[in-house]
């Protein structure tokens, strides 16, 4: 018989794997070996050895389940997911995407209801993922409240899958005696990117971090990974790590920009603008700096340094005979701090500056939608009780009205350039709304300053509207104190 030539010898019998039905009608997994013993006189036959390996195979499957399966949810675990990504990347033409999912709110359920309820929610999350993914997708639990899905599809279909899962995962979780509401964010990355399997997950994690940071309250968004996003996130992490100690290292600095009376273009004030001279990143703007400082709880430390440095500079200029006020930018969070007014008084007293020489600025957007509007009004009132004046910056870029600003005890409005700069290609009257703003400011007793004057046409427009004060690069760009001193010296007298 032809197949006899393929039968292994006595020393190396061939293993045949098969399922055989036993006497009870049950299928058993077996391994059989066939050896040709016909040349052996004592045997002179083919010898077949059949072994029942059902128990061993079941143990192997159980071990694999323990190794590659999350025991609570029954989903694949991190190891299985990484192996699947590696297999996908090894294909001749690899394609596919990874979704990394973070749940928010489960910790509160654990704290209030206990871990049994939290585990029940995780089990339900696993069920929703299994029912929500497509055939060929691999849902997995990475750890704790983080899950993932490996899908063989590309960008568009992967984003569609992510939005569908986001909707499913944020539906209420109905448990005995309680209904829990969770939110979720999802980051996506292609499996073809990066230097390896771990880098694919790292990229998806970065996209998830972006989704959490940029979403409403850090929740409910889907974001794709891209290199520019990674650079921005790494920059943010670097700033968060290195801002502590920046004051002590002498890396913070102030530059100043004059504020002019427009009739004679005579300086009447200066705005102090914060800069962080980072040794590797370069100059960091104040908006980015203060955002990091508030996140780290360093806003008081940075704000105190700014107040003291600005007041010290103002004191020196006043001693040299320059008749100026100094404006300093503050955020609503700084104003609402219980330490702010004591810090303000200390800076004024230390540098012997009259309170009415200092002006505090907050942006219109911050003033119109603060965390605590009543608290902000009270804070501005406390600042005014000290004798320090207040201003709204970038007026015209937010929803506030002059009447609303009057409630907040402000003394000045700095009008954004968008209200007086004529868009390119448009004809007719230049920025007629500037007339209205100046008129209402006069009626309400507010000083109006045109901020961002950068061209002669801007100067003509604000003068025509009756605006008395202006600030911008047309007159002088923000500069270190020694350059501003030279400018002040050259503009002591009227220009004509």
Tell me what you see in this structure.
By secondary structure, the protein is α/β, with parallel strands linked by helices. The protein contains 17 helices and 19 strands. It has an eight-stranded mixed β-barrel with strand order 11-12-14-15-16-17-18-19, surrounded by four helices. It has a five-stranded mixed β-sheet with strand order 5-6-4-9-10. Strands 1-2-3 form a three-stranded antiparallel β-sheet, covered by helices on one side. Helix 4 (115-132) packs antiparallel against helix 5. The longest helix has 21 residues, at 299-319.
Q: Please give the largest β-sheet.
A: 8 strands, mixed, barrel
Helix segment tally: 17
Give me the secondary-structure category: alpha/beta
Helix content: 40-55%
Low-confidence stretches: 1-5, 424-430
Query: Order of strands in the sheet with the most strands?
Result: 11-12-14-15-16-17-18-19
Strand content: 15-25%
Mean pLDDT across every amino acid position: 86
Distance between the termini: 120 Å
The whole-angstrom Rg is: 35 Å
Q: Top keywords for this entry?
A:
alpha/beta, eight-stranded mixed beta barrel, five-stranded mixed sheet
Task: Itemize the secondary structure elements and their pairings.
Layout: E1 14-21, E2 27-36, E3 46-52, H1 54-68, H2 78-89, E4 97-104, H3 106-113, H4 115-132, E5 138-143, E6 146-151, H5 155-169, E7 173-175, E8 178-180, E9 183-190, H6 197-214, E10 222-224, H7 227-242, E11 252-261, E12 266-278, E13 282-284, H8 286-296, H9 299-319, E14 325-329, H10 332-336, H11 340-350, E15 358-363, H12 364-368, H13 373-386, E16 389-395, H14 402-407, E17 412-415, H15 433-443, E18 447-451, H16 456-464, E19 469-471, H17 481-490
Parallel strand pairs: 9-10, 12-14, 14-15, 15-16, 16-17, 17-18, 18-19
Antiparallel strand pairs: 1-2, 2-3, 4-6, 4-9, 5-6, 7-8, 11-12, 11-19, 12-13
Helix pairs in contact: 3-4, 4-5, 9-11
């Amino acid at each position: 018989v032809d197949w006899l030539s393929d039968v292994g010898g006595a020393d190396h019998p061939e293993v045949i794997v098969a399922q055989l039905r036993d006497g009870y009608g049950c299928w058993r997994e077996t391994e059989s070996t066939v050896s040709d013993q016909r040349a052996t006189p004592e045997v002179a036959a083919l010898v077949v050895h059949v072994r029942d390996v059902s128990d061993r195979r079941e143990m192997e499957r159980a071990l694999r389940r323990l190794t590659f399966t999350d025991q609570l949810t029954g989903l694949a675990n991190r190891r299985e997911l990484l192996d699947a990504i590696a297999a996908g990347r090894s294909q001749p033409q690899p394609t596919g995407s990874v979704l990394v999912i973070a749940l928010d709110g489960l910790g509160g359920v654990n704290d209030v209801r206990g871990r049994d309820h939290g585990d029940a929610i995780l089990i339900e999350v696993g069920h929703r993922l299994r029912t929500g993914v497509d055939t060929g997708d691999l849902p997995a639990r990475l750890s704790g409240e983080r899950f993932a899905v490996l899908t063989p599809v590309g960008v568009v279909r992967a984003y569609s899958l992510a939005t569908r899962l986001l909707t499913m995962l944020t539906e209420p979780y109905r448990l005995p005696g309680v209904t829990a509401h969770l939110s979720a964010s999802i980051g996506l990355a292609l499996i073809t990117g990066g230097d390896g399997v771990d880098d694919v997950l790292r990229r998806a994690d970065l996209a998830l971090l972006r989704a959490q940071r940029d979403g409403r309250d850090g929740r409910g968004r889907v974001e794709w990974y891209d290199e520019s996003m990674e650079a921005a996130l790494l920059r943010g992490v670097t700033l968060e790590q290195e801002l502590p100690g920046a004051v002590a290292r002498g890396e913070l600095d102030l530059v100043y920009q004059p504020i002019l009376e427009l009739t004679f273009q005579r300086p009447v004030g200066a705005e102090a603008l914060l800069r962080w001279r980072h040794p590797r990143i370069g100059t960091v703007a104040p908006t980015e700096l203060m955002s990091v400082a508030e996140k780290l709880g360093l806003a008081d430390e940075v704000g105190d340094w700014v107040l003291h440095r600005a007041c010290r500079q103002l004191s020196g200029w006043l001693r040299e005979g320059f008749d100026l006020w100094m404006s300093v930018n503050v955020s609503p969070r700084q104003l609402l701090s219980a330490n702010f007014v004591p810090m303000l008084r200390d800076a004024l007293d230390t540098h012997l500056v009259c309170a009415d020489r200092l002006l505090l600025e907050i942006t219109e957007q911050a003033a119109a939608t603060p965390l605590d509007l009543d608290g902000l009004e009270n804070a501005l009132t406390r600042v005014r009780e000290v004798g320090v004046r207040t201003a709204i910056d970038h007026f015209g870029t937010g929803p506030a009205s002059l009447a609303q600003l009057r409630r907040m005890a402000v003394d000045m409005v700095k009008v954004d350039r968008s209200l007086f700069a004529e868009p390119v290609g448009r004809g007719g009257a230049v920025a007629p709304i500037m007339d209205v703003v100046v008129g209402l400011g006069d009626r309400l007793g507010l000083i109006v300053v045109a901020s961002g004057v950068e061209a002669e046409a801007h100067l003509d427009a604000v003068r025509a509207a009756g605006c008395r004060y202006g600030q911008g690069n047309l007159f002088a760009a923000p500069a270190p104190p020694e350059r501003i001193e030279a400018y002040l010296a050259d503009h002591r007298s009227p220009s004509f």
